[in-house]
Amino acid sequence: MKRIIIDGAYVESMTRLHDMLKFSLDLPTWYGRNLDALYDCLTGELSEKTVIVVRNEKRLAALDGGRGEALLSVLRDADEECRRLTVIFE
């Protein structure tokens, strides 16, 4: 099982977050570092059970002028869609 932590207190930008997710989740080369591609990868490309823990949700939501809120929505939607994915909000 793979487990990663996204802590809004330490995320500087959506670009850096996408880079971290690509590396941590071993996303495919076609991953376009955008929310549509992230959803597609989370719901169709995970090779093993994956847990994503989200901390400091409010700071993450405010990222890049509020674009982080869309990221949180993608994580929630992917969690509902994919049995291999569990997203925990702490």
Model description:
This protein is an alpha/beta fold and 90 residues long. It is built from 4 helices and 3 strands; from the N terminus they run βααβααβ. The protein has helices at residues 14-24, 35-44, 57-61, 63-81; strands at 2-7, 50-55, 85-89. It has a 3-stranded parallel β-sheet with strand order 1-2-3, covered by helices on one side.
What key phrases describe this protein's structure?
about 90 residues, alpha/beta, Barnase, Chain D, 3-stranded parallel sheet, 4 helices, 3 strands, about 20% strand
List the helices and strands and how they pair.
Elements: E1 2-7, H1 14-24, H2 35-44, E2 50-55, H3 57-61, H4 63-81, E3 85-89
Parallel strand pairs: 1-2, 2-3
**DSSP helix fraction:** 40-55%
Query: How many domains make up the coordinates?
Result: 1
- Please give the order of strands in the largest beta sheet: 1-2-3
Mean pLDDT: 95
What is the architecture at the second tier of CATH?
2-Layer Sandwich
Largest sheet report = 3 strands, parallel
Shape: globular
